[in-house]
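Quick one: structure for this chain?
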Amino acid sequence: MFLVGTLAAVSGMIEDYPMYGGQALRYAVAAVILLVAARAGGLGVVRLRPRQWGLLAALSLTGLVLFNVCVIEATRAAGPALPGIVLGTVPLALALVGPVVTGARPSPRVVGAGLVVVAGASLATGAGSGNLAGLAWSLGALGCELCFSLLALPLLPLIGPVRLSAWSAVLAVPFLLVAGVVFDHNQVLRVPTAAEAAGLAYLAVVVTTVAFFLWYRSLPHLGADRAGLFAGLIPVGAIVTGALLGIAVPSAADLAGAAIVISGIALGLRSPSPRPPARPARSAVRPAAAPLAASSASREGTTRRCRLP
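Got it. Here's what it folds into:
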């Protein structure tokens, strides 16, 4: 999620490129890299049932395509602050919804940690002016982000993180091209400039290929609720990358928000303290003398037997 946050620093490099066509190029390149990695790793072909293909298509449509549409339109309507703040609630939403999907109860500790992460992410993002359209698009992006994780849970044991990332990226390409035709009409694709090509390559390799694989690899091990805490690192990644590239100097509120996010993640990932073993009662210790008496009697009987002629 930290890597996902770094895309804010390179977004200026591709702001003049057709948005949906650029996202289609990004996922196409990432899909090729992931499919080559799956082939090199000896991962064979897995046959999915129609229901599983439906889950995969729904994940790609919501978590990749509609998520980008919602974020782009929310930014156009209200600027980047509002969708950033709404997406900062992802840790709390996954802490509440994630366990329910798997049939478990939400952990109060993880929910509390999610509240801490949300507070830090909101502080790091900063409060901005918004409007009803921007809020609606931002809430849509939040729902799509939840689908990106929750729909993956039943698929990961079957196909693993590499193939799931690859196949969802493959399915996203035609969806995005259709969205480009609808929103951008005939200005869907063009030859990128050198700076645009570098920005698209970074999105494809780092933000998609590497980040998707790491997220889907950790999701089954941590669970959706605890893994969701790391979504708070999105604004932190944007702050750090902007500072390293000299785009923006972090303010005191940015640094305080980053510290709160890290504290919340540490709180949510901390294992509950094991209970100390109960001390045995005194009455249970005294009967231990019985085996000693039996052993003494056994030695006595052996001695008597040895004295017999």
